Amino acid sequence: MLTAVLVFAILPAFLILGLGLVARAVAAQRLTPRVVQYAPARDTTVLRDALLVDADRRAASAALIDLAVKRKIHLIAGAGKREPIGVELVSGTVLTAEEAALLEALFGPEHTSTRVRRFSADRRALAGRLKSLLLNTEHALARDGLVAERRVTWPGVTLTVLAYLGMLVEALFLVFTIIGGEWGALIATLVAIAATIATIFVTPSSWRKFLPAADARREHLAGLKQYLELAEADRLRVLQSPSGAELRTTDAAASEAVVTPDAPGALASAAVSPASSVAPGSDPIARFHLHERLLPYAVVFGLEREWLAKLKLEHAELATTNLDSLGDLVDVTAEIAVAIEAAGSVVELTSAVGDLADGAGNVIGGVFELFNL
Known about the structure:
Structural class: mainly alpha
Number of strands: 4
Number of helices: 15
Radius of gyration: 25 Å
Oligomer: single chain
Strand content: under 5%
């Protein structure tokens, strides 16, 4: 019996487990950055970049925090942890089509003004709207030639089917070994079952295929993650290097979008302001703005808590040494940190938001009402 278990259970179980691990490695499509990057790439968005690093679960929250960093919205945490997080649209804000689509998904007609509970119908509806938003973003990436139009599914389906067939065979061996009292074979069967179950968990069901045109952007994002993970001394050295001598600043209102009733969400016009440059390595205020601008990407890479702590320290230093030059610098860092803490985690932020309101406190019902203000 032991020989039969080894041949028909152990060997196939570890074979498909190995194939599952290979499929997982292939699905990751990792790239090694050649250069540490200190700023996001031009002509891209946080939502698109999140999909290029397979951070789908964090994409919507990162995009919402990006709006807060750009001073287009304010996140207002409630008094208690169960209170919804208010979102206030800054007066005079100009939204791009993608930003309007995000707010429509979060605050559209089906939105509830209370916190969305887990396993509730409202939670499933919100998940469906956000899934549609990400699917539209993925289609946009496919139109730009960055990802394949269809996901890779056959390895996950094939290995999952083989795993379940293997479990049937292993269940038969389990019964026979218990009846026959062959404990060595029983232990081997249990090991095979464990390997088969592990296969189901480690094998990705599907993954998006990145095309060669996306390599440059994905390598840039890998370099950006490396910058976020650097120690402070190394980070400062990067900013003071020749490649980091200039910082491209992004005006929050640089890109303009007009949404018409005939084509909701369509981008009607865009005007990009000329880039300006400062030296972030030597200017603490410029460095703070740079690091604040990277907060949405810290969310994408799961480094938001460490990055928020760093921003708090930098802001505290600026408040004591550069009071005269701070100008209109608004500390959104504390605002975002409180909102994340109130939500429980950054992933839960989108399900913890309440109503969208304008500066006067009037509730905005959706994208159509938004552009009628």
